[in-house]
Protein 1
Amino acid sequence: MAERRHFDGVLIVGAGLAGLSAALAAAPTRALVLTGAPLAKGCSSAWAQGGMAAALGVDDLPALHAVDTVQAGAGLVDPVMAALLAAEGPDAVRRLAALGAPFDRTGDGDFAQSLEAAHSRARVARVKGDQAGRGIMDAVVRSVLSAGHVEVRTDAVLRGLLQQPDGGIAGVVVQMDGRLVEIIGSATILATGGIGGLYEVTTTPAELQGDGLALAALAGARIGDPEFVQFHPTAIDIGRDPAPLATEALRGEGAKLINRAGEAFMDAYHPDAELAPRDVVARAIHAERAAGRGAFLDARTAVGAHFPEAFPAVFAACLSGGVDPRREPIPVVPACHYHMGGIVTDAEGATTLPGLFAAGECASTGVHGANRLASNSLVEAAVFGARAGRAAATWTAAPGKVLHRILLNPLAEPLLQDLRRAMSTNAGVLRDAAGLLELLALIDRMELNQGPCGALIAARLVAACALARQESRGGHYRSDYPGQVQPARTLITLKGGVMESLAA
Ligand code: SIN
C-alpha cells in the first residue's frame, strides 16, 4: 500500500521553464514542483543555446512572428495559437528580464536581436551568444526558491497518475525516499519535457523519455502529432551521450558544412544552403554521413579566434572532445532535439481530462505543427506555462475518494539502449514502412516482458503515427512517401491501450 499525501494546491511535474513558469504564475495558490533532478539540471530548457523568439524590435510585429511560425509548421500550425504565442512573447521576455535573466542588450539598452533560419526579422533574444537556457533558468530558479507559495522536491520521479472514475486526474504517484508515494492536489500540471532519451543521439537530457506523455495517453487524454520529431542537424559528434549542440547561430554567422574532402555540400541540397530549413539540413548531413563522406561544421573563418567569447558553450563542448573549433572543423551528426507532438491542450494548458494540464515540450498547443520555428520553444514554455499555472490555480477538483492508479514500469537499461538504437534507425531523420514495422514489432516484444513502460508507450505513439502518416511533412520524412498529401493534424486517444484516431 503506497503512502498517500495531500497537497493544498497545484502539483507540477517537471522543473524546466514551463514547469517553473507555471509555479510562479499559480500565486497566490500554492504549487508543489516535483522533479527527479536538481533544479536547472535534467531539463532541456537549461541547455538551450538559441534564445527566445519575440517581436521586440521596431521593425517587427507579433503578426509577422505568427506568420513565420505558421509557415515553418508546414501546414499544421493552429494560427490562433500561433497568434497568441507571438502576441504574448514580448511580455514573456520582459518578465524574465525583470526576474534577472541577463539578455544581451544594444548600446541603448534594448534587447539585442539575432536572425535565425526561417525568421523574416532578427527577433531572437539571446544571452551571451549561446547561454540563453542557462541564463534564463538561473534567474527563474532564484525566483522560484524565494517565492513563498512554491515548494520544490528534487527527489521525486514520476511513476503514475491517480484517476477518478469520471476520468479526472486527482494527483500523481512519485518514487520518493525509496518508495512510491501518492500525492493528491487540487490540479496537476505535466511539464515533463520531450522524448530525446528515446533516441540514440539526442541533444536533450537522456532521462527525458516521454513518461508524462505516456501516462496522459494511458489515462485517455487526447494526443496530437506524436510522429513529428525535430532533428537538429548539428549535434557535435564526439561520442558523448547526450550529444552537445552546435547552435544554428553558427551557420547564421557564416559557418559552412563540409565533408571529409573539405567540399561544402549544402548548395547541392537546397538554394538556401546552410540556412535551409532544419529538416533539410539534417537530411543532407545524414546523406553525407551515410555515403561515407562525413559531415563537419567549419567555423574557422566565420568565428575563428572569437569562439571562446562568442559561443562559450559550444567551444567548451568541442574542447572536451579534443576538437579546437578555431583550428579544425567540428564533426556533426543529426540528433533528436524537440518533440512537436504531445498532450493536446487548449490555450490555458487544459488537456481533455478534467484536472490535468500540460505545458512545455510534453504539450501539444498547436503552435509547432510539423516543424518548430527556431527559438520558439522557450517562448512557448514561458507563455503557455504561465497560462497553465494561472488556470490550474483556479481549478476546483471534484471531490472523490475512489482513485485508480495508472503506473509505469521502468524499462530495463539494456532494452532501453536497444530501443534508442531502433528509434534512431527506424523513426529518425528518414523513415519507411518496413523500418517502422520492424520498430513496432520490437516494441511489442519488449512490452510483453516489461509491461507498461513510459519509453515503450511514447515510442509506440511516435512509430505508429509515423507509419500511419503516408507522406513527408516537416520533421517527418517518409522515403517511401516523399510527397505531401495529408494536411491534417494527427489526433488520437488510447482506448484500453489501443489507438483510436479522431477527426482533426
Ligand atoms: C539552436 O540554437 O540551434 C537551437 C535553437 C532551437 O532549437 O530553437
Note: The chain has 13 helices and 22 strands.
Protein 2
Amino acid sequence: MDKAKRKAIIAGNWKMNKTPKEATALLNAITPLVADADCEVIACVPYVDLAAAIEATAGTNVKIGAENCHWAESGAFTGEISTGMLKEVGVEYVVLGHSERRQYFGETDETVNKRTKAALAAGLKPIVCVGELLWERECNITEEVIARQIKLDLWDVTEEELKNVVIAYEPVWAIGTGKTATADQAEEVCAFIRAQLAKLYNQDAADAVTIQYGGSMNDGNADELLSKVNVDGGLIGGASLVAEKFAAIVKAASN
Ligand code: 13P
C-alpha cells in the first residue's frame, strides 16, 4: 500500500506534565495552529486533564487520548482507570506499553496485551509502544526484541481489531535524551514492524497500520523522519508541550 493511503498521526504524549488549567491553556494555543492539518492530531494527557482537554478541543480537529488504561471493567485496582471511564469522558485513543511504564511500573508484554484487548473491546484506539533498550541494540537483538513485543502485545488481536491499532516505535535510548534515531534507523525498524504484522496477519492488513516513530522527535528532525515510507507519524514527548514546536511537526506530517 502507498504510504499516502495510510493515516498519518501526530500524537503528543504529555506524560506527567500540565495541570488541568495548564492543559486548557496549551490546547488553546495548539488548536488554532493545527486547524488546517492534513493528518490526525492527538494529545494524550494525564487522567485529571482529560475533561478539561476534551472541553478545550470540542469542535476542533484535535482528538484526546489517555496515557494508560486497565483491563478490568471495574474492581479493586486502586489507582487504575478503566476503559469505560475513559469512554464516558470522550477519550478516543490510549497509549499502552510505553517504555516508562515498562521500566518504572512493572508493565510486561502480558499486561500490555491485556490492556490492548480491553481497549479495543471498549472501542478505544490503542497506541501500542514497542522499542529496544540501548543495551539490546548494542547486543544486536533489536529485531528479536521488537518481534517478541509485537507478537505478545498483539496476541489474540483480530485482523478486524488491528484496523484500530496504532504502533509506536520508540527506541528507549532515544526517549527524552535528545538522541534521535536516524531516519534510516527509524525506517529500518518501522519496516521490520510492518513485516512482522504481515507475518502475523497478512500484507494488506500490515500495510494499513499506522506506525509512528517516537524518541526526541522535534520541529527540526520531523521532516526527515516523516519522509520515510514506513514512518507514518510521530509520538512526541517534550516537543508536544510547546505549541509552536508541536504545530511544526503536525505541519511536517501534513506535507
Ligand atoms: P521525547 O519526545 O521527549 O523523547 O519522548 C518521546 C516519547 O516517549 C513519546 O511517547
Note: The pocket of 1,3-dihydroxyacetonephosphate is lined by residues 13, 98, 170, 175-176, 214-217, 235-239 (CB under 6 Å).
Protein 3
Amino acid sequence: MEAQRGPTVLVTGGAGFVGSHTVVELLNNGYEVVVVDNLVNVYKGDGTLPVSLKRVEEITHKKVLFYNVDLLNPVLLEEVFRMHKIDCVMHFAALKAVGESVQIPLTYYKNNVTGSIILLEVMKKCNVKKLVYSSSATVYGTPQSLPLTEEHPTGQGCTNPYGKSKYFVEEMIKDLVFSDESWSAISLRYFNPVGAHESGRIGEAPSGIPNNLMPYIAQVAVGTREKLKIFGNDYDTPDGTGVRDYIHIYDLAVGHIDALKKLLEPSFSRWKVYNLGTGTGYSVLDVIKAFEEASGKKIAYEIAPRRPGDIASSYADAQLAKKELNWVARKTLLDMCRDMWRWQSNNPDGYATGPKV
Ligand code: UDP
C-alpha cells in the first residue's frame, strides 16, 4: 500500500538559498514539493536539475520535481499548476540585491511585483488560494523603535526598490485576501538569514562580489577576497558597527514549515504576518569574532565609510511566532558561522566547483 502523501507545496525560487533549504525541510516533513525556478541566480550545472536541487535530493534521499519556468510566463506557469494537485504555494522567487535594485529598478519591479501578480492570477485561475510569502524586515524601513514588532509601520522609509517591492507585494496579497475570503496567506518577514545546511552540501552562493556581510567574511576566510570593508564604525551601537539579527537558515526554513501548518489549519483566518529572527542583535565585529572562532582563520578588515541606506540597528521581536507558531530560533551565532564555514571551505566557489554530486 502506498504511504499517505502529505499536502503538495509549489515552491517558487526553490533552487535559491532560502528556497533550497526550505525544500529540504518540506521533504523531511513529508510534504510533496514542486519547484519552479527560472535559474537566473542559480548555478545550473550540466544536468536537468540545478546543482542545489541535486544536492537537496542527496540530503533528503527524495526526488525533487523541478520546472525551469519564469513567473513572467503565465502560460508555462499554469501548465505546472495543471499537472499537479497543488495545495499551497511558497513564494520565494525574487531578485534580492539591494544595490543592484537601485541601478535597475524596473527589472526589480518587473520580476518581484509583476512576477507576483502573475503568480497570484494563475493561482486564482487554478483555484489554489493558500500562500506563504517570503518577505523581509526591510519593509520596516528605518526602525522607529526596537525590537521591531509586526505592528511597526511598513513602507515608510524603504529606501530602495528591492525593499519597496517586498512591501508592495505584501500589500497586494493583503488586499487580495481581504477581497475574497477563499484566500489565505502568511507573510514571513526575515531578518538576516545566514549559515548553511549542516551537511555543508547546500548554502548561499552569491555570484560576483557578495553584498552581504557573512558571505563576504566567508570569502575572506577562504582566501577569495583579501579583506572585509566594515561599512562605518561610528554608528550609535555598542561598538560603533552596524547591528543585525542574524538567523540560521535552518531555523528560517523550519519557520516556514510551522507557518505552513498554521496556514493549513481549518480555523486559520485569512492573513497573518510573522517576524522570523532570533531577537538578538550582533555587531559586525561580533560576527567577525565568531567567524574567526568557527573557522580558525583571521579575518582581515578595514574601516570604510558608511554604506548609503544602511541603518544602525535592526533586530526582531520574535514573540508572535513563538506564541502562535510555536517557533523559536535555536541556533547560535557560532552555529551559523560553523555551518557557513563548512559550506564555504568545502565549496570555495559555491556550486560551480564544489565536489561533483
Ligand atoms: N557590512 C559590512 N561590510 C560588508 C557588508 C556588510 O560592514 O561588506 C555591514 C552592514 O553595514 C550592516 C551589516 O554588515 O551593518 C549587515 O549587512 P548585510 O548587507 O549583510 O545585511 P543588511 O544590511 O541588508 O541587513
Note: The chain has a mean pLDDT of 95.
Protein 4
Amino acid sequence: MKNYTIAIHGGAGTLLKEHMTERKEESYTEALSQALNHGITILENGGSAVDTVAAAVSFMEDSPLFNAGKGSVFTAQGTHEMDAAIMEGKALNAGAVSLITGIKNPVQLAKDVMEYSEHVFLAGDGAMEFAKSRDYSLEDPDYFFDQLRHDQWQAIKDSDNFQLDHSVKKDSKFGTVGAVAMDQQGNLAAATSTGGMTNKKWGRIGDSPMIGAGNYANNETCAVSCTGSGEYFIRGVVAYEVSALMEFKNMSLEDAANEVIHNRIKKLGGDGGLIAVDAKGNISLPFNTAGMYRAYAKANSPKTISIYKDE
Ligand code: ASP
C-alpha cells in the first residue's frame, strides 16, 4: 500500500475569524488546497519529497495571498527581498538563498543551490549572479506589487517599526509559506519561502532561509518548516531543536514540536508555529498564535485544511 504524507503552511499570526470575510476564507482555503494537490500528484506518482515540497511552495509563491514570491512584503526601501531554503533528509543536502530580488520562485533557486553549486547558502548580489548563471529571468518590480502590502508598508515606513506580515492587527493575513513531506521511499524534505517582515532594513534576514532555524530535514527524525517572529526562531534554532529533542530525548514528533512551540520559543517571547512530519509519516502542526494557515494529506485519506485554533 502506498504511504506518503504532506503538510503545508501559509504563515501563522493574528488570524481571527472575526477579522475574516467568507470570501477571503474561501480564497485561502482554495489556494492551500491547490498547493496541496500539486504536492499530492507528485507523491502519488512516486516522486521525491524534495520535488514535492518545491512544487507546493512554488505554487504558493505564485499566489498574491502569501508573503513569498509574488506576494512578498515591502522593505523599508520599497523593494522586495526574498529568502528561501530547502533540505532533504536522506543525505542532509540543503540549499538556501537570501536577499534576492526579482526571482519568481525563490525556492527553485534554493533547490538549484543545493543541486548545482558546491555551497549551501548564497545571499544578495552573489545569489543573483548564481541565478543568472542558471539562466533565471527577472520579473519586473510590478509583478510583486500588491496594494494591500503597499498600504501596510506606507503605514509604518517613516518609523523604525518593522512587522510580521500576519501580525498586523485588523488586516492580519498572509505569511511565509512552507511544506514538509515524506515520500513513498520514506525520504523526508522541507522547504520554506518568505518576503520577511514589512519595512525591514539593514539586510535583515529571518529564520526562513537558515538551515536549522526555520527549515530542517533528517530522515532519522523529522522535516520541519517554521513561520513566525524570525529573530526568536533563529535564537531558538527551532527546526533543529524539534529534531534534536526526538534524537537525543527520544520524544515523539508531537511532543517535541509542542515543547518547542508552546514552551521553549514561547518563553523567549517568540510567536509563530511550525509544520512537521516524521519518518513514519506522522504530522504535527503546533502554533502559539491565534491561527496558522495550514493543510495536510496522507495517502488514502482526505485533505484537511484549517486556519484557526481548535479546528
Ligand atoms: N519567519 C519569517 C521571518 O522572520 C516571517 C514569517 O514567518 O512570516 O522572516
Note: The pocket of aspartic acid is lined by residues 11, 67, 164-165, 175-176, 194, 196-197, 206-208, 214, 227-228, 230 (CB under 6 Å).
